[in-house]
Design brief:
single chain; 7 strands; alpha+beta
Length: 146
């Protein structure tokens, strides 16, 4: 019975790991697209009506248009933008996933700011897409992420 339990545990871990990779894929593609100034890849990670927001230092929430964000990234050269993340938590329920990622943001290899991203993803047509991002930004107490 112990061998059978071990097999089920390993299969469960494998399946959970596969699901996490699928959830992480649009997030990792977003940052790869930013780094490569690849607007086509960037557009592909978002739902049709995705929302992008930032929590400012005073606690207000600033909204940005996804298309404006993509356009601003397109003005940079490949390698200029590099947002490095650590995925700390993934929570799922059916076609909804929540992902929390501290980050360090580099502009032309110089650490510009850091903070955390909170992503809400939805599974549409068997593919995870980013519906919502809210982040924080600060210039102090930043740790470099490799």
């Amino acid at each position: 019975m112990n061998k059978l339990s071990g097999i089920f545990l390993l299969l469960g871990a494998f399946c959970f790991g596969q699901q996490n990779q699928e959830i992480e894929k649009p997030i990792r593609n977003l940052f790869q697209a930013m780094k490569n100034a690849d607007t086509a890849l960037m557009k592909s990670v978002f739902t049709e009506n995705a929302v992008l927001q930032t929590v400012t230092k005073d606690g207000t929430v600033k909204s940005d248009n996804i298309q404006d964000f993509i356009t601003s990234v397109s003005k940079f050269s490949k390698g200029d933008l590099d947002e490095r993340i650590v995925i700390e938590a993934i929570h799922t329920d059916g076609n909804l996933a929540s992902v929390f990622t501290p980050y360090s943001f580099y502009l032309k290899e110089k650490l510009l700011h850091c903070g955390a991203n909170s992503f809400q993803l939805v599974k549409q047509n068997n593919e995870w897409k980013i519906q919502y991002i809210i982040d924080t930004r600060r210039k102090d107490k930043c740790k470099e992420i490799q």
